[in-house]
């Protein structure tokens, strides 16, 4: 093969390979027990499957990786006897991607064995972007698993920080049973 033709062939081959490159997106599931999570305030969250004194006890077999994190925010006047009176709890995670979905376990109970009210605020990159509220009206003492409580399917590709806030100062009691997230 003449030298000039060989150079053109290599250039053609390289160009065809470069033009055939496609971006592939993958989903990643991050469990609540992953060390990437930062829970605050320190000591406020319970590792649900290890907390034998916690009132909320979902069936571990139905929970992703059989783990969850539990935090109960008590609003005034209930908060005076608590270790973190009227202070919301947060769960923070940093991820690199274009979408994120948060899944929790919901307790279908108004008061027994504990209130099942949910009051969450979701912050993306330091900005509040969404809320999730749920108020059960009966005491069924059952759980609903894999409940999508937050979705942001179209983020600009890059590094992002999600903060989940459980409870609002001077708001209502709020329980969170955080299970996992999926990000793309």
TrEMBL record:
Signal peptide: 1-23
Keyword annotations from UniProtKB, A to Z: Signal
Tree of life domain: Eukaryota
Name of this chain's protein: Uncharacterized protein
UniProt organism field: Lentinula raphanica
């Amino acid at each position: 093969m003449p030298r000039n033709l060989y150079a053109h062939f290599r250039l053609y081959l390289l160009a065809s390979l470069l033009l055939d490159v496609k971006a592939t997106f993958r989903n990643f599931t991050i469990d609540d027990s992953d060390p990437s999570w930062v829970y605050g305030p320190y000591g406020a969250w319970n590792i649900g499957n290890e907390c034998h004194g916690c009132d909320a006890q979902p069936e571990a077999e139905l929970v992703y990786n059989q783990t969850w994190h539990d935090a109960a925010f008590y609003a005034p006047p209930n908060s005076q006897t608590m270790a973190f009176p009227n202070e919301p709890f947060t769960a923070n995670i940093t991820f690199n991607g274009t979408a994120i979905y948060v899944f929790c376990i919901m307790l279908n109970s108004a008061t027994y064995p504990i209130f099942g009210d949910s009051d969450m605020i979701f912050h993306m990159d330091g900005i509040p972007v969404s809320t999730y509220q749920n108020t059960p009206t009966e005491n069924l003492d059952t759980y609903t698993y894999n409940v999508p409580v937050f979705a942001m399917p179209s983020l600009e590709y890059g590094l992002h920080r999600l903060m989940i806030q459980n409870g609002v100062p001077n708001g209502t009691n709020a329980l969170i049973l955080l299970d996992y997230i999926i990000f793309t």
